[in-house]
């Protein structure tokens, strides 16, 4: 039987909730159902267990997602309605593509084992960091009129 914390972390990676919280550990707690105390314990020893490694990878992903969402909100506030809709559509497309790509790469590397959350989290974190750079530099493929 799988560890309930591993199951919660796997579900949270697959279906992230965006509560609007900007504190990473609080957001992790919302997404996983783990207490802040439990998370802080896991995050204080990132290399001690597979669960700690998975949790730390997920923390990095959540931090990147929070930063990206704040950036998207700031960019959106400067756009007209059509460009805001184009940005939203582009973001949904980007998210779907990156999740599919990271799932495929993770399946190829580790399959469905206990390292899956770590590998998937690292892949999505790297993709999200790259997306942040694209958004900051204006290299993303939207909106047609610029911002």
Descriptive account of the structure:
It is a single chain. The protein has helices at 4-14, 24-32, 36-43, 50-77, 81-110, 116-137. With 147 residues, it is an all-alpha fold. It has one domain (4-137).
Key phrases:
single chain; 147 residues; mainly alpha; 6 helices; disordered C terminus
**Helix count, DSSP H or I runs of 4 or more residues:** 6
| Fraction of helical residues | over 70%
Succession of helices and strands: HHHHHH
The overall average pLDDT, rounded, is 84
Number of strands: 0
Distance between the termini: 51 Å
Strand content: under 5%
Structurally, how many domains make up the residues? 1
Q: Would you tell me the structural class of the helices and strands?
A: mainly alpha
Largest sheet: none
CA-atom Rg in angstroms:
16 Å
Extract low-pLDDT stretches: 143-147
User: What would the principal axes of the Cα set say about the shape?
Assistant: globular
Topology:
Blueprint: H1 4-14, H2 24-32, H3 36-43, H4 50-77, H5 81-110, H6 116-137
Task: Give a quick precis of the structure.
The protein is mostly helical and 147 residues long.
């Amino acid at each position: 039987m799988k560890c309930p914390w591993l199951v919660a972390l796997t579900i949270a990676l697959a279906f992230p909730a965006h509560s609007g919280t900007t504190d990473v550990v609080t957001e992790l707690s919302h997404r996983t159902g783990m207490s802040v105390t439990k998370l802080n314990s896991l995050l204080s020893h990132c290399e001690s267990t597979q669960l700690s490694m998975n949790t730390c990878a997920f923390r990095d992903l959540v931090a990147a997602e929070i930063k990206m969402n704040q950036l998207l909100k700031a960019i959106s506030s400067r756009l007209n309605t059509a460009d805001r809709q184009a940005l939203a559509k582009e973001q949904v497309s980007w998210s779907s593509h990156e999740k599919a790509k990271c799932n495929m790469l993770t399946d190829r590397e580790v399959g469905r084992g206990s390292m899956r959350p770590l590998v998937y989290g690292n892949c999505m974190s790297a993709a999200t960091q790259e997306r942040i750079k694209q958004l900051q530099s204006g290299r993303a493929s939207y909106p047609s009129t610029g911002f």
